[in-house]
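Appendix B, record 7
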Amino acid sequence: MALHLQERKVKMVIDGMTGVGKSSLVKIASGKFRLEPYEEIFLDENKLLHKFFRDREKWAFPMQINFLTNRFRQYKEASKISKVVMDRSIYSDDIFARMYLELGYLKTEEYNVYHSLLQCLLEELSPPSLMVFLKVEAEEAVRRINARGRAEELEVEKSYWLQLHNFYNEHYSRYQEGKLLTLDVTDLDFVNNERDRSYILNEIEKAL
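Structure tokens (predicted):
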């Protein structure tokens, strides 16, 4: 029961599809609500993500376990800070694992081992006070990924992103771990448009 005290909770997690603007909103929200920004730290010493996209069936399991353990450590560390806003978290890790299971990248036995470990780790944590899910239409998600132009993302086929989009929506349609705020940002530009930014921040403030 290590972190089940109110003062040990992460205040807010911002989640959503790749390219939706999570990191940008973390920076904006941290300033508005006086929270410590905690961006996802990508530790991949064995280059498993790179290997995964070249042989998905071979590398899906070790890559997913690597992501899971990294996200557990990061969330646990963020919980010690308490007044923090995180970019993604362990509470959405299963999105990718379930997708890889359905696509055949993970064997059923591998997913079962992964899921058992996930449940054990979650027992040691408390969910955030507020989960903010940035929802976006599928084609807009792909457009934003292409627009930011990261080489490793541009190499990934469009169908992968469309599948991931579906799994994100499905995951948050059944999220029950704590308070959830879903914001449709398909037609919003909260980075460059002050009106859009004010709307997003007002919605978050009402939910906190």
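Remarks on this record: The CA atoms of residues 95 and 167 lie 6 Å apart. DSSP finds nine helices and five strands in the chain.
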